[in-house]
Amino acid sequence: MKNLVITVARGFGSGGKRIASKIAHDLNINCYENRILVLASQMAGLDEEMFREVNEKMRQKSKISSFLKGLPRQRTPKPEEKFVSDDQLFQYQKEIIEQLADTESCVIVGKCADWILKDRPGVISIYIEAPRKYCLNEIMNRMGVNEETAARSITATDKYRAEYYSYYTGGNYWTNPVNYDLTINTDRVGFDGAVKLVEDYIKIKYPDFVITPTREPKVIE
Question: Helix, strand, coil: what percent of the chain each, to 5?
Fold first, then answer.
């Protein structure tokens, strides 16, 4: 097994993104999230010069980390936004995720990465969730909003993610435990406990795999 890839799906407010970042930090590997979508959006828009350069690197099985690091963040959907499919955009995003898995050990947050990489060796898929009360407190504290706004954001964001996942996986559902190696309730085990569970599972599933630190890990949001 050349690379280890950890995919993290998460309910909004569950702390999944922070857990993914901490795991990546502990393993000294990169954590990728929304800049994958930004790069895919640029490719789908056919920014010719950028597309040619990235496409060449993909054909050579080279890293695209440098492109992702220089891109802006993709914001979280607003509560009033609805999921609208874009098959071309998803196809570019899929290619980016597959190319990352080919070239480096990493953590990938969201983007149907568990489904895209489900038939590959060296992949561990995690789903992180928590009860509504836990998520409400997390969002209120993190975003500085009241309970009503937090509740609306959680409902809308989780609905968007569920529709996105169902559409691009051919009807599978996002919270299906069969999709994942582990499902974790952060309210039950806490942030540190969730991180430890994943890191212990890595040792169980791939006891002979060693990641050789080569650089400081980056969170490529």
Answer: 55, 10, 35
Angle at which helix 186-205 crosses helix 16-27, to 10 degrees, equals 30
- d(CA 199, CA 196) in angstroms, rounded, equals 5
Q: Who's near 125: CB < 8 A, 6+ residues apart?
A: 6, 7, 9, 113, 114, 117, 118, 179, 180, 181, 182
Which pLDDT tens digit goes with each residue over 18-75? Answer: 999 999 999 999 999 877 877 777 776 655 555 555 555 445 555 565 656 555 555 5
pTM of the model: 0.81
Q: Give the SS3 label for residue 84.
A: coil
Cβ density class 5-20: b for 16+ within 10 Å, e for less:
bbbbbbbbbbbbbbbb
Separation CA 54–CA 63 (nearest Å): 9
Rg (CA), the chain: 17
| Predicted pLDDT of residue 21 | 95
- The string of pLDDT tens digits covering residues 110-161 is 999 999 999 999 999 999 999 999 999 999 999 999 999 999 999 999 999 9
CA angle 137, 141, 146 (to 5 degrees): 75
DSSP 171: S
